[in-house]
Structures are given as C-alpha cells and as structure tokens.
Amino acid sequence: MGNILVTGSAGQIGSELVPALRNIYGESTVIAGWNKTPLPEDISKGPNVLLDVTDFEAINKVVKNFEISSIFHMSSILSATAEAIRNTAHNVNINGTFNVLESAHQNGVEKVMLPSSIAAFGDKTPRDMTPNDTIQNPDTVYGISKVFGELMGNYYYSKLGLDVRGIRLPGVISWKTEPTAGTTDYAVAMFYEAIKSNSYECYLAPDTSLPMMYMPDAINALVNLFKADHGNLIHHSDFNVHAMTFTPEALAVEVKRINPKFQIEYQIDPVRQAIANSWPSSLDDSAARKEWGWKPQYSIRELAEDMYKNLVTKLA
Ligand SMILES: NC(=O)c1ccc[n+]([C@@H]2O[C@H](COP(=O)([O-])OP(=O)(O)OC[C@H]3O[C@@H](n4cnc5c(N)ncnc54)[C@H](O)[C@@H]3O)[C@@H](O)[C@H]2O)c1
Fold first, then answer.
1. Among residues 233, 228, 241, which one has the least CA distance to residue 132?
2. Distance between CA atoms of 8 and 23, rounded to whole angstroms?
3. CA 262, CA 255: separation in Å to the nearest integer?
4. Which atom of ligand 1 has the smallest separation from the CA of 13?
5. For residues 296 and 252, what is the distance between their CA atoms, to the nearest angstrom?
6. Which residue has a Cα nearest atom 36 of ligand 1?
C-alpha cells in the first residue's frame, strides 16, 4: 500500500481520523492535508501539507510527490455555513470534490473515501428508517453538494474503475475539535455550556429528533468501510449508517443527570430549524451492516458520560 492523504485534517472529523489512521498504518504513511484552519499540534508533528482542494494542479502535485494510493476527502463547508457562503461552498464542496476524484483517476490512486451526510436527503424522503436507496431532494447548498459527491463517486467507480466509498454521516458529536456551524452542533455546544455556565440556549426546538453518532463510531465506520473487502460491496459512495436518534430535550436529560444544576432554554433559529426539519430522524442501515459489518458501539448515555468527562478535563 502507498501513502494515505487526508484532506481537511484540521476539521472536526479529520483531526481524529488522522491519529486513528496513523495508529493503524504508521505515522509516515498518513499525510495530513490542511487549509486555512491550522492543524492541531499532535497532527502537525507528522507529515502534512498545505492543500487547497479547489486547486486541481495542487492536488496532482501532492498525490504525485507523496506517492498517494488512497485519499480520505474530508474538506467541506458544512450545512449552515454553506447557506451563508454559497460561492465558497460550491467551490469547495462541488469543484473540490470533482478535483479530488479526477486527480485520483488521472494519477492511479486506488481508493477514495468520500463522506456524505444525512443532508443528502430532503422533505420528500421518508423521515423514519430512511431507506438506503430512496428519494433525495435536498434544498440546501450543502445537501445538493453531498448528492453530487455520491453520484460522482458512483460514476467514477462504475465508469472509470476508481474504488470510491462513502457513508452518509449523521450529526457527529465529539470533544476534541469543535464543529463548524453545522445544524447538529447544538449537541456539542450543550456540553461546553453545561460545564462553563450550567445553562444552554438551544437553537432547535426541544422535540427535533435527528440521527447522531459519537466520534469513535464515526471513525470506526470510515476505517471499517475503507478496509472492507471490495467483493462484498454492492453500494459504494452512499451507505446509510445509523447509531442513535435523540432530541435536544432527551440530550438535556442526560446532561442534567451528570450535572443536576444544568438548565436548558430554547431560542429557535428558523434557518437551522428548517434544515433540521428536512432531514431524516432515523436511517435503515441494513446495507452497511450486511455489506461491510457496520455496528455502532455508543448509546446516548455512554456518549454523554464520555463527552462530559473529557470536556471537563479539556476545559480545566
Ligand atoms: N461533522 C459532522 O457532524 C458531519 C456530519 C455529516 C457529514 N460530515 C462530513 O464529513 C466531512 C468532514 O466534516 P467535518 O465536520 O470534519 O468538517 P469541518 O468543517 O470541521 O472540517 C472541514 C475542513 O475542510 C477545510 N477546508 C475548507 N476549505 C478548504 C479548501 N479549499 N481546501 C482544503 N480544505 C478546506 C477546513 O479548513 C476544515 O478544516 C465533510 O465531508 C462533511 O460534510 C460531517
């Protein structure tokens, strides 16, 4: 195996994916690509490169110079931000994704991991137990760009033989790197504010039920799909993965169990509420379970306890 390039390594997921991949494949094998956001210190000690994914020639250069055989393409502009900066979101999410796939194809890269999102669904998609293969009518710049990535990933696989794999991640919750204005970030912010001030003002309504996943499960999903036997895959760039569904109200109960002084209030942001209302509440992930053995580990209670404990240490 050659080297692995991770784009967007300073991001919420990339910053935990790079150390996980370095543990498995070795420090020198995993090249951390970053842009604008600086890398966390632990990652910057290993091989890394400044890389703007909107620059096709720059990707070609990195792929050739570092002898890249696999790419985890994690660079993105997330949901709520993408609504505010459409132009940049189009450049990064659509042009950037195309550049990564085309460069991989032209330079003989073997495998590209291309994460999608539950944002790839829309209000015509069945909300409960959303099937893997169903109606996709997103009405956000981010969601549309995710459908583009799924379709292009499947195109590069079926037409050009590039092994592209992807999962539709739900809201990912983690303590190491803060999320960047997605729609599900309330679930992370609630922990920070519970520790700092015993209170949190939530921008989604108390009964907004959305699928969520704790970071260790998200990393396992990416790594296990990456390792999966190609012969077992029927789907490629578009796997549903489900871990848990909860509402702000239910998460607040868990936080209050750990910190009895915690209080939650609601001040609804219509933009993010409308985005959340168009997303699924739970997903049928039987294809992922069958084709590559997907199985989440964390429940909401385990997530809450682990988040709280780690954030208390981090913020001390
Ligand atoms: N975090 C979640 O809850 C979540 C949920 C569903 C899907 N996803 C998907 O997972 C992937 C990673 O998400 P994340 O949460 O780590 O995102 P993030 O916003 O935390 O990180 C994205 C990174 O991309 C970088 N970036 C921006 N413009 C760039 C450019 N022109 N060139 C190179 N890099 C650039 C940013 O600097 C940032 O470090 C994305 O594809 C995202 O859509 C994330």
1. 241
2. 19
3. 7
4. 16
5. 22
6. 8
Report the separation in Å between the CA atom of 141 and the middle of ligand 1, taken as the mean of its atom positions: 14
Separation CA 100–CA 125 (nearest Å): 29
- Counting beta carbons within 10 angstroms of the beta carbon of residue 72, is it exposed (0 to 12), middle (13 to 18) or buried (19 or more)? buried
Q: How far is the CA of 261 from the centre of ligand 1 (A)?
A: 34
The DSSP output letter for 173 is E
The predicted model scores a pTM of: 0.97
* Residues 89, 155 share a domain: yes
Residues acting as catalytic residues: 142
| Residue 129 falls in which region: left (phi positive, over 0), alpha (psi -120 to 50) or beta | left
Residues paired with residue 33 on neighbouring β-strands, in sequence order: 49
98: CATH: 3.40.50.720
Do 46 and 180 lie in one domain? The reply is no
Range of the domain at 18: 3-170+214-240
pLDDT in tens, the chain (316 residues): 799 999 999 999 999 999 999 999 999 999 999 998 999 999 999 999 999 999 999 999 999 999 999 999 999 999 889 999 999 999 999 999 999 999 999 999 999 999 999 999 999 999 999 999 999 999 999 999 999 999 999 999 999 999 999 999 999 999 999 888 789 999 999 999 999 999 999 999 999 999 999 999 999 999 999 999 999 999 999 999 999 999 999 999 999 999 999 999 999 999 999 999 999 999 999 999 999 999 999 999 999 999 999 999 999 9
Ligand 1 contacts CB of residue 153 (under 6 A): no
CATH number of the domain encompassing residue 194: 3.90.25
